[in-house]
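Example S7 (structure tokens).
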């Protein structure tokens, strides 16, 4: 199943919702997308349409679950398999206060036997892959011992896919944001796990900002998971998609992606009553690296808070790039403008 280097986008709370995933899929057709972490309680007792619904275009799509009760996770696994997800990932890395209060996420790094039991129960329940996303250790851990113990337990129950955020999780003294920035990256621990467990598919996460880093990492692991860089420079994913899955597999220009996404936004507004702001917030970095991107962000910031914002406002925002750069990223080219954005990005460096 994982013959190629598997490139994926990390599950990120408040970021990788269904609208962001739809946008990313327009940009890159092959990379694996993950939902935000969804707690078992939301699946078992909440509004499933709200938490589990997605557009078919988002596939391949995996779901990340948060929880620590094997029975509940097994029940959730059966439900989400019916919803058609490609993979189930267990969160063993989030250090937030909410997660600690519920004794799941990164807290489970200290309970490897429980993690293995959770995974085993889900594997016995469903036919789709079960993976685990964890950290390299907790707090002041030194060396590889805690991570090695966890992976040993997972290996014993037949779990064959591991995603490692290459930083320790600090359960005391650091906020979730600080936990993404302050603990130093340690790729060597992830490489060592791959060496010790060669049959396990190991994906490295943390600090990946460009395709050159991916090229450096992939010979030593099986996959790379991109985090906030996917949100802040989304067309990086198109470069990566074409580099690892075949030149031209993702070839839509920014114009085509924007037009398609705005069509989606209009449908979501008119048919389902989704607030414009819930979808447009994912577009602020859409023109990252393109002359005129500053004007785009300024236009959105100035106009979207107004009550009369609409899809038409977004189309005007795209035209605002012309003001700064003389280039028109929309199909409604103004007379005299030489549009240099209406083409596909290079598929490889």
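Recovered sequence:
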């Amino acid at each position: 199943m994982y013959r190629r280097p598997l490139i994926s986008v990390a599950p990120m709370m408040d970021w990788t919702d269904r609208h962001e995933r739809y946008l990313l899929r327009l940009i890159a057709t092959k990379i694996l997308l993950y939902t935000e972490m969804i707690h078992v309680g939301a699946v078992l007792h909440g509004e499933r349409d709200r938490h589990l619904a997605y557009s078919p275009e988002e596939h391949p799509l995996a779901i990340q679950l948060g929880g620590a009760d094997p029975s509940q996770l097994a029940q959730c696994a059966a439900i989400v398999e019916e919803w058609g997800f490609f993979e189930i990932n267990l969160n063993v890395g989030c250090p937030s206060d909410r997660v600690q209060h519920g004794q799941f996420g990164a807290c489970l790094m200290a309970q490897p036997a429980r993690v293995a039991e959770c995974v085993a129960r889900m594997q016995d329940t469903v036919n789709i892959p079960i993976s685990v996303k964890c950290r390299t250790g907790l707090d002041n851990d030194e060396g590889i011992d805690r991570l090695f113990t966890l992976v040993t337990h997972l290996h014993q129950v037949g779990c064959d896919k591991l995603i490692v955020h290459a930083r320790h999780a600090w359960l005391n003294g650091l906020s979730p944001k600080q936990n993404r920035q302050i603990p130093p990256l340690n790729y060597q621990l992830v490489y060592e796990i791959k060496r010790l467990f060669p049959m396990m598919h190991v994906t490295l996460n943390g600090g990946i900002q460009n395709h050159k880093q991916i090229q450096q990492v992939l010979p030593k692991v099986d996959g790379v998971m991109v985090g906030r860089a996917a949100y802040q420079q989304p067309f990086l994913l198109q470069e990566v998609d074409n580099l690892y899955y075949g030149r031209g597999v993702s070839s839509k220009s920014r114009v085509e992606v924007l037009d398609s996404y705005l069509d989606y936004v209009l449908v979501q507004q008119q048919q389902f009553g989704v607030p414009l702001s819930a979808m447009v917030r994912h577009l602020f970095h859409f023109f990252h690296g393109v002359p005129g991107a500053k004007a785009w962000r300024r236009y959105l910031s100035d106009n979207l808070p107004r009550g009369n914002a609409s899809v038409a406002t977004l189309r005007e925002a795209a035209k605002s790039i012309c003001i700064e750069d003389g280039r028109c990223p929309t199909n409604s080219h103004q007379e005299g403008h030489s549009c240099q954005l209406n083409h596909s990005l290079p598929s490889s460096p």
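Notes on this example. The longest strand covers residues 130-138.
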